[in-house]
Amino acid sequence: MTFERTLTQILPHFKDKLLFIFGPRQAGKTFLIQHKLKPNLDLNMDIPKDRLAFKKFPEFIIQWYEKNWGAFPIINPAKHKPLVFLDEIHKVKGWRNLIKGTYDKTSHAINYVASGSSAFHLRKQDQGDSLAGRAVWLPLFPLSFREYVTSQTSSLKLEKPWKGETAIIPKIKALLPQQKQLRHYWDFYSQYGSFPENLVRQDMLFFKQWLEDYQTAMLDRDLKDLHLGKDVERIWQVYQLLLEGLGSTYSLRSLAETLQVSPNTIKNDLLALRQVLWGFELPVCVVSKAKQIRKEKKFYPIDFSFVNYTSDFEAGARFETQVACLLYRGLFSETSGVFPALQLGFYRDYQQHEIDFVIRTKKEILASIECKLKAKQSLQSTPRLEKLGAKEALWVIAEPGIFEKTNSGWIISIEFFAAILA
């Protein structure tokens, strides 16, 4: 079974750039590049022979070109530009200088694409020559619900994903006739998470073993490779404490006191967790950046399957994490970058009343979202959503097949909401 990834639709726009595709382990980066871009040469930096060849760039790649394509053009662009794929490039020390020099000397005749795990994103700011103007960095997350559904069946017709430019409710109304199919696929997606291998196998015994192996690899391999954490065990403890508090804000001081280290040490550990483990933070969604920085934040793992690592999590926290992952990944292109169009966070007033998620522009709040397991719980948070004054107030619930209007907003089942996000 193969999955059609949304990223493939934009790759042709950057064919003459130095293309970097980064993302969590096993998100499908290598598969996508090999099967969609079909490179002429693969070099995997996990293989010593390939790593040695990369260290001999650009001489090695020029010799390879001449052996397979004829004389290497000196100035004029080549009529046919073969594609070279450099997998796990971050594992070579000084890779930035190597690839920059090679690109400047050979890009008129050869195209390049490189991939790496979360550790690769850390190296984006590594020491070395600037790749500005040459490189394009594109994230590949695990499968979105839309990607999973559209790869399973051609009978489901989904409109373009919601990006904040239009109202949410009309997009969801268009999905109502397809509710049963959407719910069928959501049940599998929510059970096994969004990593392709688990969705293909749908084997709970394999899934549990995969979770243990995956998180061990992220901590032990990535952290040690990059020397980010001298005490891997402590970082694991920080991660466990954050997961135990899913849905609540964390305190650097409280974590530091629990583990008997300084708050600055915990701050550095959190940086490693966000970048190596692909966790993410959501801030209090307020106008002032200064206030936002001072406020506590919430931490979520990049994929909701990670909360299945233990059975201790409450159902409400699990469900909130699912919605958080859908929002963060589905709106990533709109909420990231130098000039983001949208801001994703949560709302909390001085009385500690809270709304789970808020999506806003600089001028207005587009949507306020509360997560509930059952529809009858939605009425409890009505006053808070009314006070916020969002253009659309939504209660996203775990129960299937519900799309109801209240005096204050809409109660919507998760299968509808997941299907409108990229």
Please specify the SSE layout and strand pairing:
Layout: E1 18-22, H1 29-37, E2 41-44, H2 48-55, H3 59-69, E3 83-87, H4 95-106, E4 111-116, H5 118-122, E5 135-139, H6 145-152, H7 168-173, H8 179-192, H9 196-201, H10 204-226, H11 232-244, E6 249-250, H12 252-259, H13 263-276, E7 279-282, H14 289-294, E8 297-301, H15 315-330, H16 332-335, E9 343-348, E10 354-360, E11 365-372, H17 382-388, E12 392-397, E13 403-405, E14 410-413, H18 414-419
Parallel strand pairs: 1-4, 1-5, 2-3, 3-4, 11-12, 12-14
Antiparallel strand pairs: 6-8, 7-8, 9-10, 10-11, 13-14
Helix pairs in contact: 11-13, 12-13
Query: What shape does the CA trace take?
Result: globular
Q: Treating each run of at least 4 consecutive H or I residues as one helix, how many helices? A: 18
Radius of gyration: 23 Å
Total strands? 14
As a percent range, the share of strand residues is 15-25%
Spans of at least 5 consecutive residues with low confidence:
none
Trace the largest sheet across and list its strands: 9-10-11-12-14-13
- The whole-number mean of residue pLDDT values reads 88
- Largest sheet properties: 6 strands, mixed
Question: Distance between the terminal alpha carbons, to the nearest Å?
Answer: 21 Å
Helical fraction equals 40-55%
Counting helices, strands and paired strands, the structural category is alpha/beta
